[in-house]
Amino acid sequence: MEKIVVSKEDVGLRLDNYLKDKLGMKRQVIQTLIDDGKIFLNGNSSKNGYKLKEGDEISLNFDPLKEEKKEYDLKKENIPLDIVYEDEDLILINKPKGLVVHPGAGNKEHTLANALAYYSSSLSKINGTFRPGIVHRIDKETSGLLLVCKNDEAHHYIAKQLETHTMHRSYLALVKGNFTNNFGEIDAPIGRDEKNRLRMKVKKGGKEAITRYEVKERYHGYTLLSLDLKTGRTHQIRAHMAFIDHPIVGDNLYGGKSSLYDNGQLLHAYKIVFKRPKDEREMIFEIPLPQYFLEVLNKLT
Fold it and tell me: Which residues are within 8 A (CB) of 141 and not within 5 positions of it... i.e. 6 or more apart?
C-alpha cells in the first residue's frame, strides 16, 4: 500500500483535488476510489472535500495506472423515480430499498445516478459526471428520502446545510431488543473497522458521531425507533445500534441473520427538513413506511 504524507505547502487543499494533481488522475476517478474504500486518511475513511493538514497520511490501496484506464462514463438508464417534490433547483426522491445511489467498484450501472442522468440533463456537476446532482447518500438497502440538486449553486447551498447540521434527517428502524428509556443519545466516534473494511465501528480516534433516538413502539423482543442524525457518518445508525447491542433487524453486516426478516436492514429515511435555495423557505417532508416494512411490523402485533 503506497503512502503519501501531506507537506506544509499543500495544507488546505481538498483531498480529491490534491490527489488528482498528485497522481495525474481524473477527479471523478479519485472520488470513486475514496467512496470505494481504496483511499484512506490517517488510517480511516474520508470525504472528497476534506481539507488537508500538515502531516496527514494518505494510503493508496490501488494501482493508479489500472484505475485510470477504467471506463467511468455514466450510462443513462430509464429507471422509474418516485419523485416526492421538484422545483427549478431540487428533486426530492423516495429511494426504494435495493437501489444503489451511485456507481462504485463492480457496480457501474442500475444506480440512482444512472436514473437521474436519464431523467434530467440539468443536474449539479460538483461531485463529478458519475454522481450528477447527488449531495448526500443512503445505503443500498435503506429506503427513503434523498435530496438531489439541479445546479451547482443549489448544491453548495444544500451542502452547507449538511455541513452545519441545519438540515435534519430522521429515520425509522426496527431494532432487536427492548429499551428501558423512551429517549436517548449515542455520542461515540466512528471509524473504519480494521478487520472488515466493509464495516464501520465505534473506535478511539474515529470521527465524531451523534445519534438521537426515540422509542415509537415496543414489541416482544423488538423496538421501533425514530432516529435523528446530528452528524452524518457512513453507516452511522447501523454502527451505533450495533454498538449498544440493538442491531437493526435484517442488517447481516452489523447484527447477523434474523429469523424475523433477512433481506436488508429495516431502516427508512422517513423525514427531511431543509431550507429551499431560492427563498430560504423551510421545507418539511414525511413519507410512510414501505409495504415490506409494514408487513414485518404486522407480524409483531
Answer: 97, 98, 250, 263, 264, 265, 267
Closest by CA position to 32, among listed 93, 97, 100, 78: 100
Model-level pTM?
A: 0.78
Class for the domain spanning 2-68: alpha beta
The superfamily CATH assigns to domain 73-164 is Pseudouridine synthase (3.30.2350.10)
Give the helix ranges, DSSP H, for 46-100.
64-68
How wide is the angle at C-alpha 144 spanned by C-alphas 143 and 146, nearest 5°?
120
pLDDT tens, residue by residue, 104-153: 655 678 999 999 999 998 999 887 777 889 999 899 999 999 999 999 99
**Distance in angstroms (rounded) separating the CA atoms of residues 103 and 109:** 7
Q: Residue 278 is placed in which grid cell?
A: 431560492
Q: What are phi and psi of 32, to 5 degrees?
A: -65, -40
The per-residue pLDDT for 69 is 43
Please say if 139 is a catalytic residue: yes
Cα-based angle 196, 199, 205 (whole degrees, multiple of 5): 95
In this prediction, residue 71 carries a pLDDT of: 47
Strands in 177-266 per DSSP E: 183-187, 190-192, 200-202, 210-219, 222-229
Residues 35, 89, 139, 251: which is the catalytic one? Answer: 139
Distance separating alpha carbons of residues 208 and 243, to the nearest angstrom? 15
Same fold yes or no, 2-68 and 169-269+295-300:
no
